[in-house]
Each structure stands twice: as structure tokens, then as C-alpha cells.
Amino acid sequence: MKYKATTIKDIAKALNLSTSTVSRALRDSHEISAATKQVVLEYAARLNFQPNPIALSLKERKSHSIGVIVAEIANSFFSQIINGIESVANEQGYTVIISQSHENFEKEVRTLQYLASRSIDGLLISVSSATNDLQQLKSLHQSGLPIVFVDRSVEDIHTHKVVVDNYQGAYNATIHLLEQGYRRIACVANSEHLNITKERVGGYMAALQQYQLKPDPQMIKYCFHGGMLLHEVETAVSELIKLKPKPDAIFATSDKLTTGCMRMLKRHKIAVPKTIALTGFSNSELIELLHAPITVVQQPAFEMGQVATELLLQLIESKRPVKDFKTIKLQTRLVSPDNK
């Protein structure tokens, strides 16, 4: 049997009232007596009646919903961002519609089209690693849809952005390895064109140069899908351990790449950190449960979600066009097993 939601017409018919009376009673209008309101509200509660959000959005020109697009919800970093988003949005009466791009540009475009068709009030997005055409995003932004970028941003769209200091985080992680005595430090990175990749590889290279070490292009491997496809990480690690001499440490630039490198080193029976040390960006709580816990760069993901949502709601609720935009840069934290 097909589900059929209760409507105002159903309530009106059952109580022998007009639909306008029921509608006003549900809105707590002063035009309706307290007795009638009580009858309507009690009957609506028994039927678990909820106002139709689409009808309300047409009437109010607002859906009280925001769209969120991230690469993968299972990624602990993005799940923490989403928790931060919902903590602010729900408190302000907004529903959050979450979607995943799975690092696929075509899926990202389809999702953008779907969310726009649902009349969302605003969008929070971390672009996919495959995104190299911004026409869809630009079109939505130019048409007036409030957009805020979180984590992965683009330069060509002038709006609020909430990021971390990727350069400093990568620099700190690489310096940590150098201070431990490692000198042949490889880097396994996300898609080469992403802003976060450029910044993190930049921090890695700066740390090497500080120790008068010349970055070796053979020691930097890019994974277009950012670890979403394990075979990319397998190829990167396999190529690195075939080098002569092979790396004595690996720095990975994202959650997926860090755990992917760990898995590949184990598959090749390479002990961490005895044979090859490993560090990288990771917000996973499972890192500390490993047989050989590693030092990681943690991002303030929950706070990123909160700040981005607050900025988006300011755009949505502003009575005037917003022309001054901020790029909020939060700091990362280097977490070692012995300083948690």
C-alpha cells in the first residue's frame, strides 16, 4: 500500500471545519478561538501530522533546508564536519540534506541539480577531487544561491570559505619525521589540482628544504581519487618501495591516504615505523588503537562544520546582498601517541 501523508484537508473534513480555519489554528492565529485551536492541535497530534515542507517553502519562499556535499560520509573527517553542521543548523530550525560525491564530478553535478530543484536555501560543499569544471557551481552562485566552501574550496567563486592551515599542518608533520632522523621522506597526496593538495605538498617541501634536502619528484605520488580507490594507493606505495634507496618514511595528505598507506605497507609486510615510518592527516579515532600508533595531523572538523554553517545562515538570512566575504583558516594539531 502506498503511503499517504495526512493533509490539512483531511483534518478539516474530519472535524467539519474549513481548511483555512485548520491552517490558521495550526499557525496559532489570533483569529481562531482557543477551544478550536485545542481541538485541531490534539487531532493533528494523534495523526502525527506535519506541515508539508514543499507547500510551506512555496508560501514562504524558504524551505528551511540546506544542502551539504562531501566526498564520503564514512570518512571520519567529513562525518565530524557534518556533526558540526547539524549542531548549528538544527538549533536554528534548518533541515540538513547530505549527499556524497564519492570523488566523482558527474555525481557532484547531478547532486547539485537535485538539491537546487528541491529549493534548498543554501549549500555547503567540499568539492570532489575530480572537479575541474565550475560552471554548475558558478551558475547557481550567480543565480543567488548562498554557497559556503568547507575544507576544499575554489578560487574562482567569491564567497565564504572555511579551511585549515594545510601548509602549516603538512610542514609540522614533515618536520616531526625529520626530527626523528628520517631523511628519505616520500609524500602520497590527493589529486594534484586540489587546493589542499598544493598547500600540503608545499608544506612538505618547505620542511625538506629547511633541512637542506632537495625534494625528489619520484618521491611524490598523486592519487586522483584521494584514496577512495585503493588500487591507486597500492600503485603509489608499490612504486615507492621499489625505489633504490627506498623511502624511510611516508607522509600522507589525507585520512583515506593515511589508512590506505598503512594497509599497503602491511600487505607488503613492511613494519611501521621500524622499516618505514608513516604520518599523515587523519581524524580517525582508530589510529590510537593500532599496534603501532602513528603521529597524525588532526583537523578541527567539528568546528569547521559549525563555522561554515553559521556563515551560510548569515548569508541566507541577510536582508541585503552580502559583498564582503571571509576565508576562515583554522589551525591543525599534531597528535603523537605519547601526547594525546
UniProtKB/TrEMBL annotation:
Keywords associated with the record? DNA-binding, Transcription, Transcription regulation
GO MF term list: DNA-binding transcription factor activity; transcription cis-regulatory region binding
Q: Which InterPro entries match?
A: HTH_LacI, Lambda_DNA-bd_dom_sf, Peripla_BP/Lac1_sug-bd_dom, Peripla_BP_I
Q: Where is the HTH lacI-type domain?
A: 6-60
Name of a matching Pfam family: LacI
Q: Does the keyword Transcription apply?
A: yes
Q: Domain of life here?
A: Bacteria
Q: Which CDD domains match?
A: HTH_LacI (cd01392), PBP1_LacI_sugar_binding-like (cd06267)
| Membrane spanning stretches | none
Q: What is this protein identified as?
A: Transcriptional regulator, LacI family
Q: Which organism is it from?
A: Chitinophaga jiangningensis
